[in-house]
Write a structure and sequence with these properties.
mainly alpha; 422 residues; four-stranded parallel beta sheet; 54% helix
Amino acid sequence: AGFQAVNSYLLQLPGGRVAVDHVDNALVFFVELAILGAVLQVRGWRRGTATEPAAGPGTAGGAGWADGWPAFLLATLAIGAVCGLAVLTKWLPGLLPIPVWLALAWRRQPPRRLAAGLLAMTAACAAVALPWQLYIRAAFPLEARWESAYNLHHLAVPIEGLGGSPLYYLIKMPRFFGELIYLPLAWFLVCLVYPAWWPSRRTATPEGRPTPEGRQALELLPVAVWLLLPLVAFSLAATKLGGYIMIAAPALFVVEASFWLWLWDRRPYPGKGRAVTAALRWAALVLLPLLPLRYTVERMKIRPTYDRNPPWVRALRALPAQLGPGPVVLFHLDRPLEAMFYTPYIAYEGVPTPAQARHLLAAGYRVVVLDAAAAPPDLYRLPGVEMRREAIPLSPLDDGTGFRLLRPDGSDSPLAGTTSPP
């Protein structure tokens, strides 16, 4: 919880400082909520106590709160409904809690429960998410088909120049989680092979026998699914953007915290290099939570001189007084998305072709091209196109007030350093 509370990227989402802001924020929330429900359902059903795993199906002992079929189905239906809300928020990544629940319940619940749970979750998810899909395909068939194809296009083509190698997310991890993030990540991968290193919730069975390594490996499975499934899937996709793997960030925070606790419990072995080992251990314990804070301060622009009304914003706000009312389409803007926020006009980054301009004029729109001195000459000869000399001022790299697509050289985008150039 501490790592998540200070993560720079996740703090930027509700502040609207990075792309897709509220959508990604809602997706992370619904995925975490569904996985919380999965944890509570599995722990509540297990025989014995509500917090410890049973030896297996059929073990003698008291029944948990969700041992009965009605409670079990109600819990899994609720998890599926939350998954449906996540799917409505940002499509298929919202299904991540279902394989995480399966990893949690594996070998802890009998096969009939696993099958029933998967069926209930799928039905509830479809009941929430499918009506909207059916509606848009009936009401807006052309647009719905185009959007569906565009979603799949992300897998094969770097959309809007946002591409990178399959190692993109691994390389960018220090930017989002601190430079030492590779230590807990490597430790976790070792734990998958050697589970005894993972800080288990208990080291012995109620009868006093040591906890089998298979049980410890079972505890690692849900975290591994939560973390590695999005990381591998989005690494293979052609389009890359930091926010895509943020649904796996909570699992990475769990790994970080577990590594920190494991390191805290380790004591340097007495010997010749004990002082060096102790110094490295304390450096890791201190720097692991502190290094990400540097990016938090940098990204949140925590400084008294931060300009909340820069020149480019003032210029956009002044446009309606200069252009007047009416259906206006603006062209040749550095920040078309922000222009549509600060003005009542439609805005585009590029310039229209003569055919596009004539089509808009015939439809009753005013076609306005800003920074006319840099516009193509053929637009000057087109009757009805308003060529204006005003240009919206450029903004500094770190103003943090808006999102722009990468320029051809990737030099002046707020995403510089977090995405690969096209």
